[in-house]
Amino acid sequence: MPTNPQSATILHALFGGTFDPIHYGHLRPVEALAAEVGLNQVTLLPNHVPPHRPQPEANAQQRLKMVELAIANNPLFAVDDRELHRTAPSYTIETLENVRKERGPTLPLAFIIGQDSLLTLHKWHRWQALLDICHLLVLARPGYNDQMDTPELQQWLERHRVTDAALLSQRPQGHIYLADTPLLEISATEIRQRRHQGISCDDLLPRSVQRYIELQGLYR
């Protein structure tokens, strides 16, 4: 249990992604999650070199700028660019270990992932150490199974799952919370494909980001 009673009331959350580009499918479910579990701020962590995915089309500076534009008028969000300074692949566990060292052992800390990521979490680098560092907050994703791949993984999920969001602020780490967030069928792949085809994307991402994409000539 946290020793500082004030820190016990504030849950800090991080949300990583390639953000190539950032869009409403990232932002709106996290806003709903924040309202559901009582988050005051969510720190976005743009990835540099994602280990398990194709390389981004936009470079690190462009993706960071798009994130900054997308959250400019929204006090819920902040951005941490530490992963963009790496030259090696970005492993979530290493970033979270660094954040934990900076913020101390008693702060309630959470990492936000999608249901798709939860289902493949056992393929992540040192995945079993994640709950030793933080909670996991899971966003609903359209079209994905709500059961883990094996009975053992399902038991792991049930062992750590909580349904009372208040519990997330009472421990520094160790819980999994499956959020009741909106299912938005928006993907960065779809946005890039629309751009390739010359189709407007204004309904999928903030206008400020769309303008930047146009100015930079991205995703053509």
UniProtKB/TrEMBL annotation:
<dbReference type="GO" id="GO:0005524">
    <property type="term" value="F:ATP binding"/>
</dbReference>
<feature type="domain" description="Cytidyltransferase-like">
    <location>
        <begin position="14"/>
        <end position="194"/>
    </location>
</feature>
<protein>
    <recommendedName>
        <fullName>Probable nicotinate-nucleotide adenylyltransferase</fullName>
        <ecNumber>2.7.7.18</ecNumber>
    </recommendedName>
</protein>
<keyword id="KW-0662">Pyridine nucleotide biosynthesis</keyword>
<dbReference type="InterPro" id="IPR005248">
    <property type="entry name" value="NadD/NMNAT"/>
</dbReference>
<keyword id="KW-0548">Nucleotidyltransferase</keyword>
<dbReference type="InterPro" id="IPR004821">
    <property type="entry name" value="Cyt_trans-like"/>
</dbReference>
<keyword id="KW-0808">Transferase</keyword>
<dbReference type="Pfam" id="PF01467">
    <property type="entry name" value="CTP_transf_like"/>
</dbReference>
<comment type="function">
    <text>Catalyzes the reversible adenylation of nicotinate mononucleotide (NaMN) to nicotinic acid adenine dinucleotide (NaAD).</text>
</comment>
<dbReference type="InterPro" id="IPR014729">
    <property type="entry name" value="Rossmann-like_a/b/a_fold"/>
</dbReference>
<dbReference type="GO" id="GO:0009435">
    <property type="term" value="P:NAD+ biosynthetic process"/>
</dbReference>
<keyword id="KW-0547">Nucleotide-binding</keyword>
<comment type="similarity">
    <text>Belongs to the NadD family.</text>
</comment>
<keyword id="KW-0520">NAD</keyword>
<comment type="pathway">
    <text>Cofactor biosynthesis; NAD(+) biosynthesis; deamido-NAD(+) from nicotinate D-ribonucleotide: step 1/1.</text>
</comment>
<keyword id="KW-0067">ATP-binding</keyword>
<dbReference type="GO" id="GO:0004515">
    <property type="term" value="F:nicotinate-nucleotide adenylyltransferase activity"/>
</dbReference>
